[in-house]
Amino acid sequence: MTLKALAINCTLKSDPAEPSSTDAMIAVLAKAFAERDVEITETVRVAELNVLPGVTSNEGEGDDWPGLREKILAHDILVFGGPIWMGQIGSVAKRVLERMDAFLDETDDQGRMPSYGKVAVAAIVGNEDGAHFSSAQLFQSLNDVGWTIPAVAACYWVGEAMGSIDFKDLDKTPEKVTKTARMVAGNAAHLAGLLKTSPYPG
Question: Residue 183 is part of which domain span?
Fold first, then answer.
């Protein structure tokens, strides 16, 4: 069975030429997914787009969310990447979650949201603290709007308190991160395959 994943990078950096630790973490997961024959077809840097504030699927002229929404829903797995800022997931990630609120009113005749049968995992980076709180924010919100969260669904790294080293600046990926990435990818691929074969009944 062919499964496809899309990664969204919710870094606050809008310039695609500017290095992002979130991209570095997504790359670790991409390698782990490839071992499961799951391709991350693209990484979308959300801050490059004009995703307007709101809670509908189209907020009017100039809104780039409809195109991103279409890409997200065309895949079996969403890799939701984002940085920790001030101990919580960053504002760009929250904008994406707010726009997914529209799924609640976009159900099919069985009451299923467009995200039903699709799996979401997290890629989180930052210094000091906040990885568990950020994944809790993400997973609760994503589950509310129909995404399925597998066991061990977050791959994260946090640097030392008051430190200045970012994940992208490490000489090598920590073994624990690589091991966790393999668990995330394996569980997500397994669950996505099951849901593709046997969708939720609604």
Answer: 3-197
Length of the chain: 202
Both tokens of 101, joined, read 């609120």
Residue 54 half-sphere exposure, CB side, CA atoms within 13 Å? 14
Helix (H) or strand (E) holding 94: helix 91-100
Evaluate if residue 164 carries a pLDDT over 90: no
DSSP 48: G
The beta strand positions in the chain, using DSSP E, are 3-9, 38-45, 77-85, 88-89, 119-127, 154-159
Q: Which ranges of 101-172 does DSSP label H, i.e. alpha helix?
A: 131-144
Could you tell me the CATH number of the domain that includes residue 67? 3.40.50.360
Indicate whether 126 belongs to any domain. Answer: yes
State the Cα–Cα distance between residues 114 and 194, nearest whole angstrom. Answer: 17
Number of compact structural domains in the chain: 1
Whether the model pTM is above 0.90:
yes
